[in-house]
Amino acid sequence: MTLLRAALLAAAAALASTSPVQAASAPQAGKPVTYDLWPGTPPGGGGPSGPERIGQTGTGVGAVSNVSKPRIEVYKPANPNGAAVVLVGGGGYFRIGIGHEVMPTARWLAALGVTPVVLYYRLPADRWPAAAPFQDAQRAIRLVRAHAQELGIDPKRVGVLGFSAGGNLAGIAETRFADAFYPAVDASDTLSARPDFAGLIYPVVSLQKPYDTTRSFRELSTQGDAVQAYSVELHVTHDTPPTFLAQAADDPIANIGNSLVMFDALRKNNVDSELHVFDKGGHGWGLGDPGSAPSAWPRLFAAWARRQGFFNAVDAGPFATPAATPATQAAPAAASDDAGNDDDN
């Protein structure tokens, strides 16, 4: 059993329920249903060889790389409220923080009744084109809407939540939704790619100077116009969906200026937005260690999403207070992705 498999089983146990499914093809509570993003070969060419890899050491534990089959995994909450969130892990476009960031957040969202949608996107570091992750995110949002009825999802309450480099990916998804990142492949591509709301958590927003020091910048720079194409703040308009941002002022990886320039662009375009800056916390905190300043962000995000009308207006005691992440289950070694540094922005 790989480390990622252990994490997914833990998530399944946390979401388990005897509630009936809503349709024959809908996922049972706690058991994910998987949709490949593309019916055939993904657009753009390129890609890795060999199996998908799961990080085993350092900050890469549970992180996924060498993705050759981009896909979404959808978990059905025990008591779904109709909202869905596409979860985009960070990792500098060379890996995806599934174990540390995405799965704990998926368990927390499911406890609120929100349907978590885990995105496995293609990585430029794996010899995919720089546009590949943006193609995958756009397609994922459309597929969620295409399968909304069988999943019990309201197609007008589909959000995106990204961490670090995943914040860059989520940011481009929410600002460049009208751009055709790929030719239409089927009827799903007639649906809107615009998320209804977005959360950007310690995000990489800008590739412009002085924010061009990240691994995200390096990996996306294989595309000549990457700075213009993938600096999120340059694409904000009045049609950008409501956006929540959270970051620590002492973030050593993604400078706090990333959130500040994004918030400024949102306000200038009259987009409903909320920014929380924590004095300390660093980078890569996921849900946040219990008692730390960043651990407040899930509560703040859930309250914001309720006020915006995307989550249920249910306010129970543990509503937005995630439990401490359980210790990682032991698992036999799997193919690892520990090469390179731990810069996951």
UniProtKB/TrEMBL annotation:
Keywords: Hydrolase, Signal. Residues 32-60, 321-345 are annotated as: Disordered. The keyword Hydrolase applies. SUPFAM superfamilies: alpha/beta-Hydrolases (SSF53474). It comes from the Bacteria. GO terms for molecular function: hydrolase activity. InterPro entries: AB_hydrolase_3, AB_hydrolase_fold, GDXG_lipolytic_enzyme. Residues 1-23 form the signal peptide. Residues 90-285 form the Alpha/beta hydrolase fold-3 domain. Residues 321-338 have a biased composition (Low complexity). Pfam families: Abhydrolase_3. This is Alpha/beta hydrolase fold-3 domain-containing protein. It comes from Luteibacter yeojuensis.
